[in-house]
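re: ur question from yesterday

yeah so i grabbed the chain u mentioned. its 319 aa long if i counted rite. heres the sequnce exactly as i have it in my notes:
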Amino acid sequence: MRWTWPFNDRARVGKHKNGNGSGANGAGPDFLCVGVHKGGTTWLYQQVDSHPDFWMPPLKELHYLDQLSRVQRSSSPRCRDDRDRRFIENINSLSAKPHLDFEHYAQLFEPKGPLLSGDISPNYSTLNNEVIRRVVRYFPNLKVIFMARDPVERLWSHLSMEVHCHQIEAFDATDIDEINRQLLRRGLLLRSYPSTIVARWKRHVHPDRFRIYFFDDLQRNPTELRRCILDFLGADPDNTNNGVPVDYNSWARMGKLPLTDKVRSHLAQFFKKELKTCAARLGGAARNWPARYGFSLLLFVWDMLDDSIDLFFWWDWIC
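ran it thru and got these C-alpha cells back, copy pasting raw so excuse formatting
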C-alpha cells in the first residue's frame, strides 16, 4: 500500500532522543507487534497487559501508523484510571492531525512511567518501506515482534472472523469460485505472505531487536512462548501473578467456517510457494508447514530463488 499521510517535519529530524529513541522523558513504545492477524496478537496483548512489568494502552490496536487511529471500534476502550483517560484524550487529539507525528505519538506512552509498553497493531504488517524506515529511525532501540501463522490456517481463521463479526457477508465456503473471489481481495492478500512481511521489517530493524514467534508454539506450549516473549521484551518471565491463564483464548468460542478437504487442498495449492518460502526463510515451526499439505522441500533450494524473486516483484507491484 502507498502511504497517504504526510510526515511531521519534527519527526523527520528526530533530535534529542534517548532510551528507546523517544524524547528526553523516556516516552514512546518499547516494542511493536506488527502482526499477523489471527496469529495470537490478542493473546499477547492480554498477557502483557496483565503483567506487572507493563502498562499497556487501553486499546489493543492503536492503528496510528497505518490509519492515524481513525478506525471504527466495535467496543469502548478500557478506562479504569486517569492514565487510561489521559491516553484516550491524547490519541483522539492526535488522530485529528493530518500527518504522522512521531513526537506526539511517543508522548502517548508517557503514562507507562518506568514500566514497559508497546503498540500491538497487526495491521502494521501492511506498512511500506518508507514508513517502517522512519519509525525505526525515530525509535532506533524499538523491539519488533511478528507472530507468524501457517498462511492457509491464518486465512481461514481471518475469513471466519470477518463473517462472525459481520465485517463481510456470509458466503458459500464450499464454492471454489467464491473462495477465489475472497482470496483475491487486496486487503487479504497484503496480510497473507508472512515471508515478505518479515523481509520488509528485517531490512530496517537490527536482528537483535526483531523476533518471530509462531502460532504453532502458542497452541503447543503457551507457557514457554510467554516466557520467551517476556524475556525478549525485558520483563520478568517468572512472574505469573497476572490473573490471565496462559492458555486463555478469547476467540475460542467463535465458530469457524466449515473447511472441506477440497477447499483446504485448493488453498494449499494457492499458497504452495509461500509455504515453502516460509519454511526456508522463517525456520522454526514454519519448517513443518509444507508437509501438512503433502509438499516436499526436496529440491526446493533451487526453486526458492525464483519463487522469492517472483513474490518480491509481486509485493512491490501491489504496494
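noticed a couple things. The two ends are 4 Å apart (CA to CA). also The first strand starts at residue 31 and ends at 33.
anyway ttyl
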